[in-house]
Automatic annotation (TrEMBL):
GO cellular component terms listed in the entry, alphabetical order: chromosome; cytosol
Protein name per the record: DNA 3'-5' helicase
Pfam families: UvrD-helicase, UvrD_C, Zn_ribbon_Top1
Taxonomy, superkingdom: Bacteria
This enzyme's EC code(s): 5.6.2.4
Nucleotide-binding is among the record's keywords: yes
Organismal lineage: Bacteria, Pseudomonadati, Pseudomonadota, Alphaproteobacteria, Hyphomicrobiales
Limits of the UvrD-like helicase ATP-binding domain: 187-653
Catalytic activity, as annotated: ATP + H2O = ADP + phosphate + H(+); Couples ATP hydrolysis with the unwinding of duplex DNA by translocating in the 3'-5' direction
Keyword Metal-binding part of the UniProt annotation: no
Length: 907
């Protein structure tokens, strides 16, 4: 299972400052050439990565402890050699002393280890090389050696001395550069922004929060280092997540530096453009990218074509893929995994709801459980004729006639099939169920009805469908599998689309991490729905093979291969990086290949620095291959670092900022931050508008239009309070989880006082408005949180799966909540309000206002927090108030407590 095969590492002092790596042949790496040692976790094991000048080696197949130990041993071995060099090669130590004193005198600049290294690297001799080595660890230095060095060396050997120097430097610099920061990028920077501009350790991570001015800080940092002449403009690289972000950053930097954009010498790029540029630079022509790379829909189309050709040429694949679509469209998650029974019931009912990808309903049947659905879909797939819950009259011993409704009745052979909720030991989680099952068995037996049963235990042990098939085959029931065309016509397009998206993500991970089928199958065994996971593992493995073949045959590469090629060119030294300061925006969305490119650039150019800015609360691209742990475990990836915070938000008022922050931090895995707003809390600026759903789904589009009319009117009437220019309008963002909710058909209406735009939660990232309207904040597969996105299959390929339920959906909702400065409107299906609304109410209490679309206050249920108290009438005509979420919430007022449930039921 180890992709890179066996390896052996020899750390032997007799090798005179070299380590020997045997991996096929022997290679001796000089300790002086090694620039970094890091550990990372792949799917099943940990890896130690050794980066040396011109090469990178990965030692994989280690346990977590073993990788830590090996990294520590390597680190110690290299340092022992460095100390030997410093202790024995003393000729140039006085020169080093002079350089150190020169650089520290007059507190002219922030001093990172790299700056000291850069200063003394020009001194000849190995002692200076050892002292400027990036892995030099003063804590390991023998006390005797430390004491023998000149006083100035304390900057190198005593972290406290350098720290104290830098603290004093930052304080002085804040004073000195006050006028500079007072007017930067059109605003006065906060203290935290200023400090982030000044700090320049070897590795820097700025942990921000929504609306905290990350872009202003990046602009400020570039302006500051250029003002100080610490770098030339062409030594600075800024990496943005997408083209529009790169364009905006470029414009703002050029404006700040007062140069034409075309004359800007700092590079502001996307990863895509950077990778392409590196390859073009070395090879003299741009990389030959697959034709789907530049089109968002192109990749899905390519995957679709690969699937189609596999279906035509490989019967095994066709069988697996169809089973996946029809029988295993969604995971069967056991009840124990859900927080409450109500959650589980909702989950099951969502998956069974008519018209939602249920082959079962196409077969004319609405079933009661997910396992029954699996059976129905299997029967449909094999064209087996059956009746669901057909009524059968059975006479008991005493002559009374009972009517039974067996789950399945096979008309061709008059066979009855019951699917019992029984455990492997014959017990059942449902009271009296065992007796009930037994009485059914006996009744069929008495009436000599041909009968067989399946059980929940078989579903868990993956033998349900094989048992069903064997029982039917024994009775010579004919099977005829539906054609691929029939299947794709019957399966809802969203199911296919969902699989395409999942497959696309998995292909990236499988190729980037060289995952094998065995590894995927091993992971599949750890998921809840193992049968589905194993099936999917085989399917995605075959598609990945087809995908790689297609690239090879056409001599093309995809985006990740392009980045990997660029990394190779950097690591082997064929590309010489000009960048000494690399700034990375939206670092929370970084993927492994992109992180590798940053590391390669950083390691190649000696003494270069990385400044990454991001907000782990806004990491929303796990589907596109991002790995949040590169951010949360920054030091393990990049080495010792300074980590700063931006905790002041300039956007949301304090109520929204604080509520959203507490909401997202309910996931303990998110980094803890305190968020303060520069805008005071606007009371009740979070509003919930429940919409009734009398005829099927509530009409969110109509509700949205009514609300916009109302806002336009209301804001127009107080225009004097906010209008600063005659034509000014307030900005309203209408946001939705899925594009099918777009109430404007792509063209938002225009109003006198408000400027409306609409887009998905994902696309709203980075945008801001005065008010936001969030549509369909309801429970459901396509609701908030979206259940469909949280497919456990993603955990087959993600190195460190998240354990907190709907972690990414929570962050996405946080992004949506934090776009507004003045107010957020949450429009919800009154029958299925999102659990997230309840959480906001728990956090903000009375500050969340329930109202009608016209703006009249509604009375929120104090018990469940998501329902409203509505007037109800008893049979005797007396009136009481009860929660409209009955029976999920039984709260009522105005009736004696003991009889309230009873009255509700009648009401
Ligand atoms: N020092 C400052 N003083 C006043 N306003 C500021 C300051 N810094 C940033 N802002 C403003 O705060 C708002 C948010 O800034 P920006 O868009 O850079 O934040 P962000 O951290 O990138 O937000 P998000 O991550 O939510 O997209 C902008 O309107 C910006 O002009």
């Amino acid at each position: 299972m180890f992709p890179s095969g066996k390896w052996k590492l020899t750390l032997d002092p007799k090798l005179s400052g070299r380590i020997r790596l045997s991996q096929g042949g022997d290679v001796d790496l000089s300790c002086l050439d090694i620039v970094s040692i890091s550990t990372s976790k792949a799917l099943l094991w940990h890896t130690v990565e050794i980066r040396a000048r011109g090469r990178t080696d990965n030692l994989s197949g280690l346990s977590g402890d073993a990788s830590e130990q090996l990294a520590a041993d390597l680190h110690a071995f290299i340092n022992t050699h460095l100390f030997d060099l410093i202790g024995t090669e003393t000729d140039h130590l006085l020169d080093v002393d002079a350089r150190l004193r020169e650089i520290t005198e007059g507190n002219r600049q922030y001093l990172a280890q790299a700056d000291l290294g850069r200063a003394i690297a020009s001194v000849p001799g190995s002692a200076a090389a050892a002292l400027s080595h990036p892995l030099l660890d003063p804590q390991l230095m023998p006390a005797g050696l430390k004491a023998s060095l000149p006083v100035s060396f304390a900057m190198l050997t005593d972290p406290c001395v350098r720290h104290a120097y830098n603290e004093a430097f930052v304080a002085a610099e804040l004073r000195k550069f006050q006028p500079f920061f007072d007017d930067l990028d059109g605003r006065s920077l906060s203290d935290q922004q200023r400090e982030a501009c000044i700090r320049l350790e070897d590795n820097n991570l700025l942990v921000a929060s929504a609306g905290s001015g990350k872009s202003a800080t990046m602009v400020g940092k570039v302006a500051y280092v250029l003002e100080k002449q610490l770098y030339r403009p062409d030594e600075i690289l800024l990496l943005a997540f997408n083209k529009s972000a790169a364009d905006e950053l470029r414009t703002r930097i050029a404006r700040q530096l007062q140069v034409e954009e075309s004359a800007l010498k700092c590079r502001v790029e996307t990863f895509h453009a950077l990778g392409r540029g590196i390859i073009e630079d070395v090879e003299g022509r741009p990389p030959q990218l697959a034709n789907w790379v530049d089109h968002p829909a192109g990749e899905a189309r390519a995957i679709e074509e690969i699937i189609r050709s596999l279906v035509e040429t490989d019967p095994e694949f066709a069988r697996l893929w169809c089973d996946l679509l029809v029988v295993h469209a969604k995971a069967d998650i056991p009840a124990e995994v859900f927080d409450t029974e109500a959650d589980y019931r909702r989950y099951v009912s969502d998956r069974l709801r008519k018209g939602e990808a249920t082959i079962g309903s196409l077969a004319g049947v609405i079933v009661k459980s997910l396992q029954e659905k699996k059976i129905v879909n299997w029967l449909w797939l094999h064209s087996v004729a059956f009746d669901y819950e057909r009524q059968i009259a059975v006479e008991d011993d005493d002559g009374t006639v009972r009517h039974l409704h067996p789950d399945f009745y096979y008309t061709l052979t008059d066979t009855v099939h019951e699917h019992f909720a029984l455990n492997a030991d014959g017990t059942s989680p449902i009271a009296d169920y065992v007796q009930h099952a037994e009485s059914k068995r006996q009744a069929y037996h008495r009436k000599e009805i041909d009968f067989f049963e399946t059980t929940s235990a078989q579903a868990s042990s993956e033998t349900l469908l094989s048992t069903l098939e064997a029982e039917l085959a024994r009775r010579a029931v004919p099977f005829e599998r539906k054609s691929y065309a029939e299947i794709t016509k019957a399966v809802e397009p969203v199911v296919i689309k969902h699989y395409h998206k999942l497959i696309s993500t998995c292909i990236k991970h499988i190729r980037a991490s060289h995952l094998t089928l065995d590894m995927l199958l091993e992971r599949a065994g750890t998921l809840h729905d193992k049968e589905r996971a194993k099936l999917y593992a085989r399917v995605v493995w075959m598609i990945t093979r087809g995908y790689s073949q297609r690239l090879e045959e056409t001599n093309r590469i995809d985006f990740d291969s392009m980045i990997a090629d660029a990394v190779r060119l950097v690591e082997t030294g064929r590309y010489q990086s000009p960048y000494s300061l690399i700034l990375v925006d939206e670092f929370q969305d970084i993927s492994e290949p992109r992180a590798n490119l940053i590391k390669a650039l950083k390691q190649q150019k000696a003494f270069s620095k990385v400044f990454a800015v991001g907000d782990d609360w806004q990491s929303i691209y796990r589907f596109a291959g991002s790995d949040i742990t590169i951010f949360t475990q920054f030091e393990a990836n990049f080495g010792a670092s300074w980590q700063g915070r931006l905790e002041q938000t300039y956007r949301c008022n304090q109520l929204i900022a604080e509520t959203a922050a507490r909401f997202v931090q309910r996931n303990p895995e998110q980094i803890a931050k305190s968020v303060r707003s520069t805008r005071p809390a606007i009371p009740r600026s979070i509003r919930v508008i429940p919409i009734d759903d009398e005829r099927g789904r509530p009409d969110f589009a109509q509700a949205c239009h009514c609300l916009l009319e109302r806002l336009d009117h209301a804001l127009g009437s107080i225009a004097a309070q906010w209008r600063n220019e005659p034509d000014a309008k307030l900005k309203i963002l209408v946001l939705w989880r899925y594009n099918l909710l777009d109430p404007f058909g792509g063209i938002p209406p225009s109003f006198a006082n408000i400027e409306v735009s609409g887009l998905s939660f994902h696309r709203a990232k980075g945008l801001e408005a005065d008010y936001t309207v969030l549509l369909d904040v309801s429970e459901g597969d396509y609701g908030v949180p979206s259940r469909i996105e949280d497919d456990e299959l993603l955990n087959l390929v993600i190195p460190r799966p998240e354990t907190f339920a709907y972690a990414e959906e929570r962050r996405l909702f946080y992004v949506a909540l934090t776009r507004a400065s003045r107010g957020v409107y949450l429009i919800t299906n009154s029958r299925q309000p999102s659990r997230y609304i309840r959480e906001l109410c728990e956090i903000a209490g009375e500050e969340v206002r329930y109202e009608t679309i016209e703006g009249s206050a509604l009375r929120q249920c104090p018990a469940c927090l998501v329902g409203q108290m509505v007037g109800k009438r008893n049979r005797d005509g007396t009136v009481f108030h009860g929660c409209n979420q009955f029976p999920d919430c039984r709260h009522s007022e105005g009736v004696p407590a003991q009889s309230s449930a009873h009255l509700h039921r009648r009401a």
